[in-house]
Amino acid sequence: MSRQLKLGAILTGVGTGQAEWLSPEIPGNASVDIDWYREQARLAEAAKFDLVFIVDSPFITPESAPHYLNRLEPLTLLSAIAGVTSKIGLVATLTTSYTEPFNVARQFASLDLISNGRAGWNVVTTGLEGAAGNFGREHHIDHTERYRKAREYLQVVQGLWDSYEDDAFPADKAGKHFLDASRQHRLDHKGEFFSVTGPLNIARSRQGQPVIFQAGISESGRGLAADFAEGIFAGVDNFEDAQVYYRDIKRRAHEAGRDPQHVVILPGIAPIIADTDEEARAIERQRDGELDLDKALVHLGRPFNYHDFRQYPLDGPFPDLGELGSNGYRGHAEHIKQVAREQNLTLRQAALRFATRYSTFVGSPQTVANEIERWFVEGASDGFNLRLTAPSEFKAFTERVLPLLQAKGLFRKEYSHNTLRGHLGLPVVENRHTVARRKAPALRISA
Q1: Would you call 316 exposed, middle or buried from its count of C-beta atoms within 10 A (0-12, 13-18, 19+)?
Q2: Claim to verify: residue 140 and residue 228 sit in the same structural domain
Q3: What is the DSSP secondary structure assignment for residue 57, as one 8-state letter?
């Protein structure tokens, strides 16, 4: 089979849920322990995963999940991981709402060179309204404005990444000729949000530009993804919704003049694997039974800017929240409202529903492998982003499920590329100035 699964590992230290940190396998300081991250990245690379992914956000409360409370900055972290890995992609989350494009372009270009072409950027617009206070603003940027800004931001960053053509530095010591100035290009961007002169003071890597990822599920998020994203961390939790999302994004990419095969869609999953389906479901039920309802309510409130759901009757209907959440994680918030309305959920049921997220990736190794194959073959995904929790759970996947996928011809046994673009089947991004110069003579002749 020419088309192959793409797999990512989400490294979340002590965990983004309620209880992962209680596992005896996970150190209490895992989210700030570089040795822990290095070991997990090495394990993912040994399993021939395409990438490791670091989540991030710029706002917390005392009730935030353990990993959010105390964690390393993603680009610093991935630069350290780059030194102990050689093949696996390195993807970090960074917001366009509260950063400057010149700095971000330089940071990711640096990671791309440090890793020899393995960097990727998960572009987010920041859904948490409280983040505004950390960056000198009284109010969070409006949802629509955030996405307009993100579009211009990406245009600026990608333009800066093309500041130097690939042959800009002859470094001819005999001729004392370091830079070919004709291959250096100012940006001179002036737009609605940014005015950036350029050029960026760093060359391109062997993959041309870092890979752009995105994770939005709102209308604005889908539009941004279709126009810019090369990888999408899809927030879908069932097969039917995943198929609808997959078709929608591929259609939008095609309409935007892009090759849909160059938009790789990776839903996030957390498989539960045991010897039999019954044992795996028993583990799932046990975990569900151990959920702390109070913490589940806090978790439910996060997409609504940490709205306090504890003020409502637990066994009453899910409350009418009006426009709450529309300026935060809009897609996620609207999904919760829709499911609660359509399934007539009480607040208690909604809190447990979205704290547990019933998964079809639960069962024996064969069951999980078959379900992965179904999503992949029947147009629901191009692969998956696995939430790496206890090392034993990741080991169960790599040692018991992965060989079954390899036997089906769905996943590689060895790397065939050294860059993230190579792993994902994406083309190297050619420098725009090189392309323009190559086309210029033909245009003059035809004129």
Answers
A1: exposed
A2: yes
A3: -
Q: CA-to-CA distance for 78 and 76, rounded, in angstroms?
A: 6
On whether the CB atoms of residues 12 and 360 are closer than 8 A, the answer is no
Same-domain status, 216 and 131? yes
Judge if 187 and 233 occupy the same domain: yes
The tens digit of pLDDT for each residue in 160-214 reads 999 999 999 999 999 999 999 999 999 999 999 999 999 999 999 999 999 999 9
pLDDT digits (tens, 9 = 90+) for 71-91: 999 999 999 999 999 999 999
| Residue written as token pair 């040692």 | 399
Q: Which domain holds residue 289?
A: 285-356
Q: How many separate domains does the chain show?
A: 2
User: Helix, strand, or coil here: 407?
Assistant: helix
CA distance 434 to 361: 46
Same-domain pairing of 102 and 241: yes
CA-to-CA dists, residue 118 to 55, 92, 110, 377, 418, angstroms: 17, 11, 11, 27, 8
Q: Kindly write down the DSSP assignment for every residue of 279-296, as one continuous string.
A: HHHHHHHHHHHT--HHHH
Q: Answer yes or no: is 413 within a domain.
A: yes
- Report the phi/psi class of residue 93: left, alpha or beta, with left for phi > 0 and alpha for psi in -120 to 50: beta
Bridge partners (DSSP) listed for residue 264: 231
Inter-CA distances, 189 with 148, 263, 302, Å: 16, 27, 36
Whether 140 is covered by a domain: the verdict is: yes
Beta carbons within 8 Å of 292's beta carbon, 6+ residues apart? 18, 19
